[in-house]
Write a structure and sequence with these properties.
The chain is an alpha/beta fold. It is about 30% helix and about 20% strand. The strands form three sheets. A five-stranded mixed β-sheet has the order 2-1-3-12-4. A five-stranded mixed β-sheet has the order 8-7-9-5-10. A two-stranded parallel sheet has the order 6-11.
Length: about 270
């Protein structure tokens, strides 16, 4: 997508009548954050009277913010848990899920690492600490440095479910607070392995094949890539038709929304 889409004018975007008090507060996932920020910039360019703020405190904190009525949109890289729905209901909140994109979780290593492909079982054993040297999986004779997202992260929850099968990650694992921090740690550590969203893969890290399948938009969309998930935005009930929140929450269904999702590196739910 061309960069000028994010600098869109009011003449080319859907505009609504807004008052100076219109405000949308968004909080949650660091994975979904770039999508929310791109949508916010796009929407505010067409509707300057609407103020949208985006914070990235983690999926779990996004859910809590919605329960406490401190945000209108909880962005999450995992579905809300049963306990979160129950806690929300007790406070009169009715979370409605909007799937805004699909994502894979590439397994990242340093570009100098010769390993190209791991199975889900090998990855699980590496993060358990049962495989502790790269030589055991065709790599150099170096102790593996495992890097994980913090446990409040939806990315962590997805990895724990799809790879770890809910088994506890080994004690030597390092935890960091964002996908960007995982990438930074892996790119500076030749023996490291970590995981992040598709949008965080660049030339500074190497994404491995998992079970022989490379993580890409196509393999995530077809279900071939084993470590994949939907990305969510939650609202309290369905937004009122025609409201600024409704307009914002339907951007992902438009052609411009699809292009923004693709540019950021995720997989759109629409196909134009």
């Amino acid at each position: 997508m061309k960069k000028q889409i994010l600098a869109i004018t009011a003449a080319t975007a859907v505009a609504v009548t807004a008052s100076a008090s219109d405000k949308i507060v968004i909080d949650g996932s660091t994975t979904v954050g770039p999508i929310a920020k791109a949508f916010a910039e796009y929407y505010m360019a067409a509707n300057p009277d609407v103020n949208i703020t985006v914070s990235e405190s983690g999926s779990g904190n996004g859910a809590k913010a919605m329960m406490n009525s401190t945000c209108e949109v909880a962005i999450m890289s995992r579905p809300m848990k049963e306990g979160e729905f129950k806690a929300a209901a007790e406070k009169g909140i009715q979370p409605v899920a909007h799937v805004v994109a699909l994502d894979g979780l590439p397994i990242l290593v340093h570009p100098s690492n010769p390993v190209q492909d791991l199975t889900v079982e090998q990855i699980r054993k590496i993060f358990l600490g049962e495989i502790s040297n790269w030589s055991a999986v065709g790599g150099p004779d170096k102790e593996i440095v495992t890097i994980s997202r913090d446990t409040n992260s939806g990315t962590y929850e997805t990895f724990a479910k799809l790879v770890m099968h809910k088994e506890k990650i080994g004690e030597k694992c390092e935890y960091v607070g964002s996908n960007g921090a995982i990438r930074q740690r892996v790119q500076s550590t030749p023996a490291a392995i970590g995981y992040a969203g598709l949008g965080f893969v660049d030339k500074t890290v190497k994404a491995l094949k998992v079970n022989g399948v490379y993580p890409s938009a196509e393999t995530v969309q077809t279900g071939e890539y084993a470590v994949a998930r939907p990305l969510y935005m939650y609202t309290n009930t369905y937004p009122k038709l025609g409201s600024p929140l409704y307009q914002f929450m339907t951007i992902h269904l438009t052609e411009d929304g699809q292009e923004m999702v693709e540019e950021i590196g995720f997989v759109p739910v629409t196909a134009y």
